[in-house]
Design goal:
The structure is a homodimer of 242-residue chains. Chain A is of the alpha/beta class and 242 residues long. The first copy, chain A, contains ten helices and ten strands. In chain A, the strands form three sheets. A four-stranded parallel sheet of chain A has the order 1-8-2-7, sandwiched between helices. A four-stranded mixed sheet of chain A has the order 3-6-4-5, with helices on both faces. A two-stranded antiparallel sheet of chain A has the order 9-10.
């Protein structure tokens, strides 16, 4: 079994992710928000690329039936119901609701997983659950970091390393590629909170600039939720655990 | 002063490398071969994308006036004079000659540097010379790893880390990005030969498969040559040191 890592959607191998499980990671903040929203009872999340598409999708589903959420340059989108801070996605706001979400980096990565055998949504919040699920499957996997505007993002690589380390604790013979070896090395032996590491990333510094630094602290919580969101037929819902 | 790192040409920031020094790295093997060939007296190297373009360029310059060199899938190209193993580029073969070179990963990275203020060619072989040159310049820089078929390559990231660490020894206040912090961490504190690290990379394993494992050993030599190749007007020549 092999589990490779891509640092950006552009690094998807030729032939994409056909036949593999893809784990999409955008720690700051899209996949953290998705994991937290589904944990809090959101019915489903529909990721879309543009603001216009989000509005159109909301009209199609019935504007009152959905919550529009997402960000541009980290900030909430005018006219939307929620931004992209995980803690906005409380049970009070999201339980039973359909969320239409558009974010800068996470959404394109999710859509790039098209053609995979299965697409899971991972973050530090559910790293352990994801590792167990991938380890329990019979097929090869690819951990797809969303990155930041097409470039490497430290926090996503760190999370990929954590998932891969957990996976190898469960299946020591899992093979990986150059990027997988790099993320394992980035992790080092550290067992403490990744919050200080996350705070030095470009994404975290941008969030601090716009007053959203508390999101970094929230997204740095490892294994807060034992949930596995799965992206199937244009929507993300919880799947049963392994 | 800031010095960022890109793991593949696709990671070049928007606006490319305008106004910056770009250091192109393809440790296994294109930039190692270029450094060694110029050290051995090659007059200039003309990188081109395709085999057809190489042949056309050779006809334009006079077939006997040039050496055709390069690889496809690591192997020498039929009808070419030299492959892409650095040790083929001996003084006997290359002194005073113009080389037309086409390689899979290094050439596209070199061509992606178009628009930069200055494009330097780096490898482990000349890491120290490159670091001194970048540190001595007044402008921001970008270390561009060629990667492997559009994906992260460990050996290039390692070399980027070495150049960045040397740079910071000379200019401790150099700022960097997420990828720069990652490559510094990949390096660790190790001061020994990088050969064992390089040998685990996907590129090295492919070279070993086709009987070119000795190239890895050669390319792992840090600071073998004190030369700085510069890519200007479609050709690479040595520049004077700082």
């Amino acid at each position: 079994m092999r589990v490779d890592v891509a640092f950006t959607p552009a690094e998807l191998p030729k032939g994409g992710a056909a036949g593999r499980t893809v784990v999409v990671i955008d720690v700051l903040r899209a996949t953290s928000s998705i994991v937290h929203a589904l944990f809090n009872g959101a019915r489903r999340i529909v990721p879309v690329t543009t603001v216009e598409e989000a509005v159109r999708k909301a009209e199609e589903l019935g504007r009152d039936a959905v919550l529009l959420c997402g960000e541009r340059d980290c900030l909430p989108i005018r006219g939307f119901d929620l931004g992209n801070s995980p803690e906005e996605f409380t049970a009070e706001r999201v339980a039973g609701r359909t969320l239409v979400m558009s974010t800068t980096n996470g959404t394109p990565a999710l859509l790039a997983s098209a053609g995979s055998a299965e697409c899971l949504v991972g973050a530090l919040l559910n790293a352990g659950a994801i590792a167990r699920r991938v380890a329990g499957a019979e097929r090869d996997a690819l951990i797809l970091c969303s990155g930041r505007e097409g470039r490497f993002a430290y926090e996503d690589a760190f999370c990929a390393g954590l998932v891969l380390r957990r996976l190898r604790q469960l299946r020591p013979r899992v093979r990986t590629d150059d990027a997988g070896r790099a993320v394992l090395r980035l992790l080092g032996r550290g067992q403490g909170s990744p919050a200080p590491i996350l705070r030095r990333s470009a994404a975290a510094r941008r969030l601090q600039e716009v007053g959203l630094g508390q999101d970094v602290q929230f997204c740095a919580q490892v294994d807060l939720h034992d949930v596995i969101p799965s992206f199937v037929e244009q929507r993300i819902e919880l799947t049963a655990g392994e």
